[in-house]
Write a structure and sequence with these properties.
Helix content of chain B: 25-40%
Strand order of the largest sheet of chain B: 6-7-8-3-9-10
Structural class of chain B: alpha/beta
CATH topology of the largest domain in chain B: Rossmann fold
Order of helices and strands of chain B: EEEHEEHEHHHEHEHEEHEEEHEH
Low-confidence stretches of chain B: none
Low-confidence stretches of chain A: none
Number of helices of chain A: 11
Number of strands of chain A: 2
Number of strands of chain B: 14
Oligomer: heterodimer
Largest interface: A-B, 29 and 33 residues
Number of helices of chain B: 10
Structural class of chain A: mainly alpha
Radius of gyration of chain B: 23 Å
């Protein structure tokens, strides 16, 4: 395949993926927006008033970046895991396997689909947050790069989960038992510096802490971790997960008999 | 003559230890229409799975129009279209979208993909279903959709794994005509089927696989020439109750007005008709029973058992 053909193939997957989640927008875009809006009301407005300030910011202002990031993480992951697993389940994955597309086009197409949904939900949640607080972006470059890189990382995670999954139960295990706890404990609702030293150290072994704080730094200009280290962590995980995904496709794990 | 497909010493052992292919080798000439036959579990679908990259081989090589499927992955794939045994498209997608998407996977731009989709949906009688979800199609339409999808990148080699399974006779015949036209236009076709009449009618060469080994590969004509007997089906002018005794032939009464006569290919038929006339039995029409390939196939597989 020449580059034009590869681009056509990549464009086909991305268009198909975006069309898929846009077609069922009531299932894919609205529920996360409602969930996050409830977080704004309950944690930001009702409980947040009693908590008071974190640093120079109100509790609502403090949790908004974390909640945006949480919606991006869960939606980019769930988009790819459900879409790729359903192609396996319906065997339409064979349409791709018999084609001359290189593996990186397949991975890239699904990942960009996941990024598109993650960012679409992120934009909706950001717009909703403006009803509850004012949002001034401190550093637009860090904000955008951190959210895009995180969406890429979790789209790759969703892809790997889908490759290994044998049933619909398997695609909900990782989000339920790994992703949600790590996100909730990833500094979305609190600063890890508020924790005792031991738990602060433990929290810093959670990669989501770096993504949430990196993004929070972009918006508010404050972070519990070094932003350079946050970029390093995200990029390192992206490279590792991409290599893993590529290896899985190359060897046909969970796909070819 | 160009070789469309060259399979060499192909082996496949599944993770449970089952040896599905024990080192098969065969070639298909460009422009051929070949039947790949074998009983259930013989290794036909595994062979097709490896050729189409849906199954990992244990060892051996596959070349499609000279391109190795491992070393020249993309070039090899461009030349082959696969029609699998089971439906493997997204049941929620529209018929037209399935073809356009498949074309896209082969690197075809959107405009050409739309033109190809229209061309093949029209050729296979599915154009008026282009906006329907694929799950709404009948079984026969779904089979035709898979053929259209396999052709959308216009491959030189088309592999069909039991394309007419569960399809009614009328549709089967129309698919035969379509495949014959396609073959005449230069597409090499490999067909697996359990309808041996279909293989005999369509194919010019044959390969028989059994217990993971190729036990025969030759032209259909040469294969059928091995059969020294043929069975004639006679429609009778009046009903009879007992099959008549005919010298040098074995007779079977199918029903009161249909008689099957098995004769040596070398034996003159005049004697049979003379004898039937003497017995007062009128023959209104006669045809060859299309079971020649079936007889040879069964005897060959039984010998290999």
């Amino acid at each position: 395949m020449n580059w034009q053909q590869k681009f056509n193939a990549f464009n086909t997957i991305v268009t198909k993926e975006i069309r898929r989640f846009m077609r069922i927008w009531i299932q894919t875009l609205i529920p996360p927006a409602i969930t996050i809006a409830l977080y704004f009301v309950i944690f930001g407005e009702l409980i947040g008033r009693r908590i008071g300030q974190i640093g120079d910011y109100s509790y609502m202002e403090y949790i908004v970046p974390g909640l945006i990031m949480m919606s991006v993480i869960t939606n980019s992951y769930s988009n790819v895991v459900s879409s790729f697993f359903s192609t396996k389940f319906q065997r339409s994955i064979e349409e791709m396997l018999v084609s001359p597309m290189p593996n990186y086009i397949v991975i890239g197409g699904f990942v960009l689909g996941g990024v598109a949904r993650g960012l679409a939900v992120g934009v909706i949640v950001t717009a909703l947050s403006l009803f509850f607080t004012q949002l001034a972006v401190e550093n637009i470059f860090i904000t955008i790069t951190m959210v895009v890189l995180t969406a890429i990382l979790f789209s790759l995670g969703g892809f790997i989960n889908a490759v290994y999954a044998r049933s619909f139960d398997d695609i909900s295990i990782v989000p339920t038992f790994v992703l949600t706890p790590l996100t909730y404990l990833g500094g979305v609702f609190y600063s890890v510096s508020m924790l005792p030293d031991f738990w602060e150290g433990v929290s810093k072994a959670n990669p989501i802490v770096y993504m949430v704080n990196g993004f929070r730094y972009g918006i508010l200009g404050i972070s519990d971790v070094n932003v350079g280290l946050a970029y390093g962590m995200v990029i390192l995980f992206i490279v590792a997960l991409y290599c893993w995904a590529h290896w899985l496709l190359k060897n046909g794990v969970g796909i070819r008999s | 003559m160009t070789i469309a497909l060259a399979v060499s010493d192909l082996k496949k052992t599944y993770s449970g230890g089952f040896e599905a292919l024990k080192g098969i080798s065969f070639q298909v000439q460009s422009g051929d229409f070949m039947a790949l036959l074998g009983p259930n579990g013989a290794g036909k679908s595994t062979t097709i799975g490896i050729i189409s990259s849906l199954v990992n081989k244990s060892s051996g090589s596959v070349r499609i129009y000279g391109q190795d499927i491992d070393q020249d992955f993309a070039a090899a794939k461009m030349n082959i279209g696969i029609v699998p045994q089971e439906f493997n498209f997204n049941q929620f997608e529209k018929v037209g979208d399935i073809l356009r998407t498949q074309a896209g996977y082969f690197g075809i731009d959107q405009k050409t993909a739309a033109e190809r989709a229209e061309k093949y949906l029209k050729l296979l009688g599915l154009w008026d279903k282009r906006d329907d979800r694929s799950r709404m199609l009948s079984g026969g339409m779904k089979r035709r959709l898979m053929i259209a999808r396999a052709l959308v990148h216009e491959p030189k080699l088309l592999v069909l794994d039991e394309p007419t399974a569960g399809v009614d006779i009328e549709l089967r015949r129309s698919m035969w005509v379509f495949l014959q036209q396609l073959n005449k236009q230069g597409t090499t076709i490999i067909l697996t089927t359990h309808y041996l009449e279909e293989a005999e009618h369509l194919c010019r060469s044959i390969a028989i696989i059994d217990h993971g080994q190729i036990i025969e590969q030759c032209s259909m004509k040469a294969f059928l020439a091995r059969l020294d007997k043929e069975t004639l089906v006679l429609d009778l002018g009046q009903d009879i109750s007992v099959a008549p005794v005919l010298d040098g032939a074995r007779t079977t009464l199918v029903d009161a007005h249909t008689l099957e006569v098995e004769v040596s290919k070398q034996a003159p038929l005049n004697d049979i008709f003379t004898r039937l006339s003497e017995l007062g039995i009128a023959v209104t029409s006669m045809r060859n029973k299309a079971n020649r390939l079936e007889e040879l196939f069964v005897s060959m597989v039984e010998r290999n058992a």
